[in-house]
Amino acid sequence: MNLDEYYDVAFDLVKQAGDIIRDRINRPKDIMIKSCEVDLVTESDQQVEKLFMDGITAKFPDHRFIGEETTSSGEKVQLTNSPTWVIDPIDGTMNFVHALPHTCISVALLIEKITEIAFIYNPVLEQLFTARRGQGAFMNGKPIKVSGEKELKKALLMQEMGTSRDPEKMKIVFENFQIFTSKVHGMRALGSAALNMCMVALGGADANFEFGIHIWDIAAGDLIVREAGGVCLDPAGGKLDLLSRRVLCASSIELAKEISVLISQYYPERD
Ligand code: IPD
User: Fold this and answer.
1) Is residue 252 classed as helix, strand or coil in its secondary structure?
2) ipTM for this prediction
3) Does ligand 1 come within 6 angstroms of the Cβ of 160?
């Protein structure tokens, strides 16, 4: 096993994927609907995922993949101990469709179910977030750190609306806006789960939570936040389970715990 080689090969592929996203964002797109009218996919999502998988397979034929666009809707995700690349080819597809420049490729390598390598790349704003287990987190090669904020009343908090319009789920989203808006400095949402997590890693936001995300939205962000000194938990305060479709990350354990006792919980069907 050669983690340096895996990192270098994936780094080149992530940069190539970024070139496609940057080149296409301002052009007309072929847009297809997935689970509902606000869950979209474009031909670029599919091409980026193929480019990444083909590039890895050519070098490491025994590696496995969990890719957003190759996992059929409703299919159960199989995470094994084999080296597995978890890919969201375009996270923030809705932003990409509208040419809002908060969109990225998100890639994580898990070996024996432990995340070793993570990349989140926004090629439009030229922000490349990288991490390796035990080696810190970086943006464009420079080390990044969470804010360290411990108090909810001084926090900038992120919550997405998500890509489901299920009334039960929407009720929880609105309840949480109501619970937190008056208790924090401000609420934000970039439209990309992966980039929201990067903002916590960067110290630009203090915490982020979302229900209904998938493993490909958060696997890379989880490592980047932890390597930047933050915490990633289940929103009820327990250990994060990447397949649970629930995430809470924060700049400190104190802040994460304060959020987890107040938050209105939602338990989607697992990945
Ligand atoms: C979505 C985005 C969005 C989040 C959704 C994700 P996609 O990913 O990250 O911000 O709210 O939960 O599914 O579909 O753009 O790859």
Assistant:
1) coil
2) 0.95
3) yes
